[in-house]
Amino acid sequence: MLKHLSVLEQSAAVMGQSAQQTISQATQLAIHCEALGYERFWVSEHHSHPSIVGTAPEVLMAHIAAKTQRIRLGSAGVMLPHYSSLKVAEQFRVLDALAPGRIDLGVGRAPGSDSRTAMLLNPDPQSAARFPTQVQELQLWLNDEDFPVGHPARGVHAYPTGTTTPEVWILGSSDYGAQVAAHFGLPYVFAHFITDGVGAKEALDLYFENFKPSKYLAEPKAIICAWSLTADTEENAIYAFRSRARNKIDRNKGLLKPMQDPQYALEGLNDQELKTFDRMCEKALIGNPEQVLGKLNNLCADLNVQEVAIITWAYDFQVRLDSYQHIAKIHQAVNQATA
């Protein structure tokens, strides 16, 4: 059953809106969701992506940390193969100093971009293969633990140290991330929104079955990141969903565009694409608050998880604010009724 609600903010581009506005709204959303009782607020990393303008989660997290008091802040994620493990550890040690005890470091192996952009970020074509090693390095530096004798990093520290430590999460949308998280005894996040749920149960089952307790985590802990939108009525939710649906239909044709006004989002689609939209509406986690909470509960039960990080795109920022408020309020009401 769904116990905890969290947020994944991707800073999706909106037609007619500046990228500066989009980034500013991420902070407003974090403040809004903290007031509503959300557990975490994570921000993503993409590069050279016309649809998603969030490129530096660690910078955005620092700004949000100054505007919030309780909610956990995290990256979903830092694409580790692009960077030095030491530099990432330093950045997140600074974040932990700014917001002690509420920093999550979600790391992934995917490029978060096209292959050419990934090569410009890190010219080493074998960088992704070092991901498991980098995860180990991160843990040692974040926890200020010694590297083995003879290791070139022995004696090098990631400052500032402190009494609290960022929590490392492994992100994935396939079996690979699940295996890495299970092997190292770390918490795991499955990107349900990337695969539309395909492979989610297999990856999560693999994680739970193969989890090895570590000094960082005694028992497996998993979250799914799922795309969802709710409104006061199912009709209004489906109407707002048009913008996201059109974005996905265009993306499948290789077109990366900002979100369109739902009033015009279905214009120019052929009959087959309109049928695709209808199928998307049937499968998506959208509807009125009762419907969406029911879908999320069913999803959690099926996947054996208790926390969902919700991603909501909408052309109108107020629609996003309302969606997060609707689902938080009905979730709290149900929890109080069953307590």
UniProtKB/TrEMBL annotation:
<dbReference type="InterPro" id="IPR036661">
    <property type="entry name" value="Luciferase-like_sf"/>
</dbReference>
<comment type="similarity">
    <text>To bacterial alkanal monooxygenase alpha and beta chains.</text>
</comment>
<dbReference type="Pfam" id="PF00296">
    <property type="entry name" value="Bac_luciferase"/>
</dbReference>
<feature type="domain" description="Luciferase-like">
    <location>
        <begin position="15"/>
        <end position="297"/>
    </location>
</feature>
<dbReference type="InterPro" id="IPR011251">
    <property type="entry name" value="Luciferase-like_dom"/>
</dbReference>
<protein>
    <submittedName>
        <fullName>Luciferase family oxidoreductase, group 1</fullName>
    </submittedName>
</protein>
<dbReference type="GO" id="GO:0005829">
    <property type="term" value="C:cytosol"/>
</dbReference>
<dbReference type="GO" id="GO:0016705">
    <property type="term" value="F:oxidoreductase activity, acting on paired donors, with incorporation or reduction of molecular oxygen"/>
</dbReference>
<dbReference type="InterPro" id="IPR019949">
    <property type="entry name" value="CmoO-like"/>
</dbReference>
<dbReference type="InterPro" id="IPR050766">
    <property type="entry name" value="Bact_Lucif_Oxidored"/>
</dbReference>
